[in-house]
Amino acid sequence: MTLMYLIIIVIFQWIVVVSGEDVDSSFKVGVLMVDRSVRNRFDIQRIGPAIDIAAESCQSKYNVKLSLLRGYYPRKCSAELAIGRATDLAMNSNISAYIGPACSDDLQVVGRFASYRNIPILTGLGDVLKEREQFRTLIRMSYDLQDKAHAILAFLKHFKWKKFGMIYRQNDVYYTAMADLLYYLATSDRFEVICQQSYIRAANKTILSDLEKIMETMRGCSRIIVILGGDKDVREMMLIAKRLNMTTKGDYAFIYTELFQNEAKGNQSWARGNESREDKLKLKEAYESLLILSLNQPYSEEYKIFSEKVKELAASNYNFTYTEDVVNYFTASFHDAVLMLCDVINETRSLGENPLNGTIITSKLKNKKFDGISGIITINEKGDRIADYALLDQNDTVKGNFEVVLTYFGATKEYKEVSSIHWPGGKVPKDRPRCGFDGNDPACYKRGLKLLEMSLIITLFLLIVIIIIGVLTYSYFLYSRLSSHR
Hints:
By secondary structure, the protein is of the alpha/beta class. The chain is built from 14 helices and 15 strands.
């Protein structure tokens, strides 16, 4: 009797456990995000609606129910609060994955913790990340700095520019890391960084370095100049370049990188500032020598519908009003991170494997190709997206707007011409003047000597021919006279 009673109890407890699992079949995902950020655009108010839309699609598209658990922390990036929220979620809620954080320093600590706990972590940012190998379970859905440096070189190669100069903002983690990577990759791939200069900007965004001197140096050492700095810094440099006569003949090309393509498109930073209208129009003309590189952001009808839905949810559920025409690439990347996670959970489940096993989920997320709202997503073996990039040019010289003219697909290394580039002077600048920057290139000097030598030879030859003709003519004339006297 006692044995039968124990068996009944065990069966009853098993039924309760099974029933409990059936009731709560959701996959718990911790969302780590700043709440109402005072400094950046990657807080829960902006990104949360995109995550919610994706979670809803997971249910209908993949039959995967997500339970989004809040791991928010107030006002600003904080590595301390980020790891605290991540630890609480892991200890108390038995989560299956993390979405976020969006801040690089926060991601550094949470990424290591997630690797230790074998929890997949997906983010739409994380571009500045050292020691990538320590983040075994991390999937980056936007891009990384090395990927962006490769894209810069790809565009340079497209125009047959193998020599270039570089100006970068010093004491800035993003730009100095970018400069180091670009220099290393360039010199490893038969490019030549002819000269590089750095400048310092104060916390109030005032440039402390002598930009005039920096631009004078660049004028004498490079025709193709990559600028790693913000658009306000670029504006000051282009003003100086105009004064130094670097933008009138089409001999120089300037390239700078912009994170947000919807801000690069229609860029009219030349029109800002306190200068007179006449001076601003001159600066607009100088901007014809400028090219802008940004992440390629699709502007399909589907993307516009998605943007409108994000804006509506932001207003109704997060009390936030979007001012952008369309939401940016990074917001879309967070949305795609959630969808791709659900796709992998569904695939794992259909194969009879355990979708709660972090190792299995992470391995399936790597080397994956996925069609997302932010475009075709290709994740490499490290877990990083191989992004696509756009080159923008001021081909509307009347309004001074920038438009996409060329796209580069990082995964396939292919280019697509979208529109023609307006080159000042009507020609693609050369990365080096024919006779060098000082006009004293020995090859050019030798060429000059050869031309002189050839001119002398031709002149002597003509002179000899004239003398011979003269002698023959005189001889003939003399012979004729003598014959007539006979």
